[in-house]
Amino acid sequence: MKKVLTFLRRLQRNNNKEWFAAHKEEYLEVQARWNAFCEELIARIGEYDPTVRGLTVKDCTYRIYRDVRFSKDKSPYKTHMGVYVCRGGKKSGFSGYYFHVSSGEDQFDINGHLLAAGDYMADPRTLRVLREDIENGEGDFRAIVDAAAKEGYSMDETWKLKRVPKGFDPEGPYADLLKYKVYCLVASADDDFVLAPDLAQRVAERFRITKPFLDYVNRAIEYVQEEL
Predict the structure, then answer these.
(1) To the nearest 5 percent, what fractions of the chain are helix, strand and coil?
(2) d(CA 96, CA 119)
(3) What residue ranges do the domains of the chain occupy?
């Protein structure tokens, strides 16, 4: 993974089409290394999560080219590489396991290396079903979150509401868990973690603890999809 990080940090300092074109062969080599890592990661996660078995690298990875149409930052290339392993692939709508390595040097970049598990910007129907499950679940969701916290994960606080949504008990024992708009566990990783041997195995093992969380969120997503 050292060559991947080195390339991303060089790209960060030279984020323009001319430099990228001159180093296209280097990028292709880095991309091949990343794809090989992703293929192994998918297989290792599939050992304990059968819903992702059979996914291809293409199902789970992204282009390096940025969509700059609505961004003030017109840098043409991403300076991170990510993989999203979830049931049905990245466009299925199901929650999954996301890992990326990053240059970590750009204010517009996704800072640092990241492990995340959950759903991103679920639709209102899914959020309502998920909140109903949490409110009526007698603490099972909190137990899952607490178990993940012991392994270094925390709930993503992005866009967390200040108040409990209408229709739910603001004084209930799980009121704090109902305020999230993004139900996702996140954990950071440093260079030592990323550069250590057997990275795919290490990442897969870090994700294993998040499977009950994903199962819980995906149950709500599946319910809503079946109702459509």
Answers:
(1) 45, 15, 40
(2) 7
(3) 2-227
